């Protein structure tokens, strides 16, 4: 039995928790952003809903959507890193602010990418 197969279930649960934590951070930030930048606040709410759906799909072991969840994780990672260097897609200017929330979101994005990759590989075996 491969190592990935034996830790497949716990990794799925941990992956779901990572997505829920990521959604929690973004839902928290959306409350203040709705007043300052409504478009960004609404995007954070939409993206948080997608993260909650991804968490549910990982936890219930819906194998058909593991690859789209992996793509979603990469898109989130690219958006947060790209918007710090280049103009953000909707705003037209870069977001130079790097605070605890940005660092936490980056760390959770990297963890999510690693875990979903392992989950996807484990589901194919």
Helix content: over 70%
Number of strands: 0
The percentage of residues in β strands lies in under 5%
Tally of alpha and pi helices: 5
Termini separation comes to 10 Å
Q: Based on helices, strands and strand pairing, what is the structural class?
A: mainly alpha
Average pLDDT reading: 89
Q: Sheet with the most strands?
A: none
How large is the radius of gyration? 15 Å
Unreliable segments of 5+ consecutive residues: none
H and E order: HHHHH
Record keyword descriptors for this entry.
125 residues; mainly alpha; 0% strand; elongated; membrane; transmembrane
What order do the helices and strands come in, and which of them pair?
Layout: H1 3-6, H2 8-36, H3 38-59, H4 66-85, H5 100-123
What does this molecule look like?
By secondary structure, this protein is mostly helical. The chain has one domain (3-124). Helix content is 79%, strand content 0%. Helix 2 (8-36) packs antiparallel against helix 3 and helix 4 (66-85) runs antiparallel to helix 5 (100-123). The longest helix has 29 residues, at 8-36. It is elongated, with a radius of gyration of 15 Å. The mean pLDDT is 89.
Quick summary of this structure?
This protein has one domain. Helix content is 79%, strand content 0%. The chain contains 5 helices and no strands.
